Amino acid sequence: MTTIEAGTLPRLKERYLNVLRPQLQEELGLANVMQVPRLEKIVLNCGVGRATSSSPSSRAPSATSS
Predict the structure, then answer these.
(1) Cβ–Cβ < 8 Å for 21, 36
(2) Cα separations (Å) of 22 from 7, 10, 53?
(3) What is the pTM of this model?
(4) Where are the domains of the chain?
(5) Does residue 35 surpass a pLDDT of 90?
(6) What is the DSSP string of 1-66?
């Protein structure tokens, strides 16, 4: 687990703790907050693979003489 500076939480984790976890607890009818499912890892795919594999010259518009 990574160390987080005092007073700072990632926005998604803060939203989960303050909004989603209480809603899940109520929706699932759980008596104890420790019974609510936890988030362990979130992975975001930005989809930059194709952009990094092609050369910049192939993406640049070609100059045509008029």
Answers:
(1) yes
(2) 21, 18, 44
(3) 0.54
(4) 9-37
(5) yes
(6) -----TT---HHHHHIIIIIHHHHHHHHT-SSGGGS------------HHHHHS-HHHHSPPP---
